[in-house]
Amino acid sequence: MVGKLKKWVLSSSLLTSVAIFFRRIYLKKKRNITYHKNVFIGFSVECEGNNGFGKNSSIVASKIGFGSYLAEGAKLSKASIGRYCSIGPKVTCIFGKHPSNTFVSTHPAFFALKTPVDFTYADNQYFEEFAIPNKDNHSIIIGNDVWIGANVSLMDGIKIGDGAIVAANALVTKDVEPYTIVGGVPAKIIKKRFNEEEIDFLMELKWWEKSNEWIEKKASFFRNINDFKEHLKSKE
């Protein structure tokens, strides 16, 4: 019933505009969402709350965690975004890939049953063009407290770990480990943000899962990892 109603609304540009207008009001009041001009949030997007969306940004078929935001021009799709993430300007997702070795040709007519040109030489699907999504139909996974710089491109199927940083203009083609800084085309490891002991400490703590009250009380210690650790130890 809900699916049929959604299709009916989307079949009319007028009804779609009305639905988007009232949904924006609902999200602003109930989820404390901040909007700028020309923002589009798909009907299936889950906003955990206190999110921000910059001018000309869009998000569809995705989930965005508490406190996370998209800067101007960022366009995400089929993404699971954790809490306290900073998504920079003009970050985009890239879906679909072609074989780059062993195959004589990269054209889909040689590996796919369905092609953009309406013909194929393949009698089977010999190469997977798209990543298999998770149970929530998300195929790009962004952890918590992740910072993605301007003009970054995210390939379908990648996972970015908690606390990671992706430098501006990077092309992320492989998974990024937690608290790792990557950059370049394709993105490669630059360095770790902290030493292994500190990373283990943060991964075990998972501060982003704490209550807002807990975080607010500890916020002044977030400026230095050593002060933060010492403060928590003193409270044990």
What do these coordinates show?
- It is a single chain.
- By secondary structure, the chain is an alpha/beta fold.
- The strands form four sheets. It has an eight-stranded mixed sheet, with no helix packed on it.
- The model has no long low-confidence stretch (mean pLDDT 92).
Low-confidence stretches: none
Distance between the termini: 52 Å
Oligomeric state of the chains in view = single chain
Strand order of the largest sheet: 1-4-7-10-13-16-18-19
Strand content: 15-25%
Q: Briefly note the structural class of the backbone.
A: alpha/beta
N-to-C SSE string, H for helix and E for strand = HHEEEEEEEEEEEEEEEEEEEHHH
* Helical segment count: 5
Mean pLDDT: 92
Secondary structure: helix percent: 10-25%
Note the main sheet: 8 strands, mixed
Rg, rounded, reads 21 Å
Itemize the secondary structure elements and their pairings.
Layout: H1 2-10, H2 13-31, E1 34-35, E2 40-41, E3 46-47, E4 52-53, E5 58-60, E6 63-64, E7 69-70, E8 75-77, E9 79-81, E10 86-87, E11 92-94, E12 140-142, E13 147-148, E14 153-155, E15 159-160, E16 165-166, E17 171-172, E18 180-183, E19 188-192, H3 196-205, H4 212-218, H5 225-234
Parallel strand pairs: 1-4, 2-5, 3-6, 4-7, 5-8, 6-9, 7-10, 9-12, 10-13, 11-14, 12-15, 13-16, 14-17, 16-18
Antiparallel strand pairs: 18-19
Brief synopsis:
The protein has 236 residues and is α/β, with parallel strands linked by helices. It is built from five helices and 19 strands. It has helices at 2-10, 13-31, 196-205, 212-218, 225-234; strands at 34-35, 40-41, 46-47, 52-53, 58-60, 63-64, 69-70, 75-77, 79-81, 86-87, 92-94, 140-142, 147-148, 153-155, 159-160, 165-166, 171-172, 180-183, 188-192.
